[in-house]
Design a protein that fits this description.
By secondary structure, the protein is mainly α. Among the domains are: 89 residues, no CATH class; 77 residues. Helices cover 88% and strands 0% of the residues. Helix 5 crosses helix 6 and helix 7 packs antiparallel against helix 8. The chain starts with a helix and ends with a helix.
Length: 297
């Protein structure tokens, strides 16, 4: 009996110490914490709206705010309810707070992935687009007229980007500035090379068609090399995903064969701390692996 009372008091003491340390940490860094919260909420909304503009998607700021808040609250309530009913309300509350914070990161990751896919698609269309542009200039068309031909013949996103150049040029923006804006919207080495070449040759004079043919050859070789690298790194990415999933698979096996051994990790304060630390380390390890296998050329 004395041992049980001592054990309960020790657990309560650990919980009290943890809460005191958290309170002191929040008190000391309150300004930074509130600034971080503002960045993760309103800053996230602004960031997503800027990225959606690059995707040519229009949405009202208030509507986007409501979507983010609804997603955050729904995910947090689901996590708290699931872990609270099946494991522990304390763990559910802790994971619910983490889910609420993570919910503002998930849309940014999704939008960044969409922007990256769009940029890759733009890069894959540059060979055909610049070939059309070169043929149009050889046929005697001006640069805006050749761009209009590319807009009519090519699919999105290349047609959207070139179409935006023409729209900006019609309202009085110089063609050089329009191409510089294109380089900012699509920050790739191939696009920078294309924009620099066309702006320099428009000032100094030269054969744009031949320069475009040279750029097309460089881009085609770069794409071929990138595809080969992606093939070689796909195995490393798969291995990283397998390693990151192994702790969850082992936990599931132990949970099915011996539930009591897993229960300690989610019902005791020390077990919860160890579980959270393991999840963080697993995430960091997977992030490091993705950085290693991602090769830029």
């Amino acid at each position: 009996m004395t041992y049980v009372i001592t054990d309960i008091l020790s657990q309560k003491g650990i919980i009290l110490v943890i809460f005191v340390l958290i309170f002191l940490f929040c008190l000391k860094y309150s300004t930074n914490i509130f600034s971080w919260i503002e960045t993760q909420t309103l800053g996230t909304r602004t960031y997503i709206m800027e990225k959606l503009e690059l995707l040519f998607i229009e949405i009202e700021a208030n509507k986007l705010t409501n979507i983010l808040l609804a997603f955050s609250m729904t995910l947090s309530v689901l996590v708290i309810t699931f872990f609270g009913l099946w494991i522990s309300w304390i763990l559910g509350f802790i994971l619910g707070i983490g889910a609420a914070i993570l919910s503002f990161r998930i849309p940014k990751i999704i939008v960044d992935n969409l922007v990256e896919r769009r940029i890759k698609m733009y890069g894959s269309q540059m060979v055909d687009g610049l070939t059309l542009l070169s043929n149009g200039i050889r046929a005697g068309l001006s640069v805006p007229q050749a761009l209009g031909m590319v807009v009519n013949e090519m699919p999105a996103p290349l047609s959207q980007e070139f179409g935006l150049i023409l729209q900006q040029n019609r309202i009085g923006v110089t063609l050089e500035e329009c191409f510089e804006n294109l380089a900012k919207r699509v920050p790739t080495e191939d696009n920078d090379m294309f924009v620099a070449a066309i702006n320099i040759l428009r000032e100094t004079g030269g054969n744009l068609a031949e320069v475009f043919d040279t750029i097309v050859s460089v881009i085609r070789e770069r794409v071929r090399l990138q595809q080969k690298i992606d093939t070689y790194t796909a195995q490393g990415m798969f291995q990283g995903m397998t390693i990151a999933a192994m702790p969850f698979a082992i936990a599931g096996i132990y949970g099915a064969s011996d539930p009591n051994s897993i229960k300690l990790l989610v019902t005791t304060p020390m077990g919860i701390i160890v579980t959270i630390a393991a999840l963080i380390l697993d995430g960091v390890g997977f992030w490091v692996i993705t950085k290693i296998v991602k090769i830029k050329i």
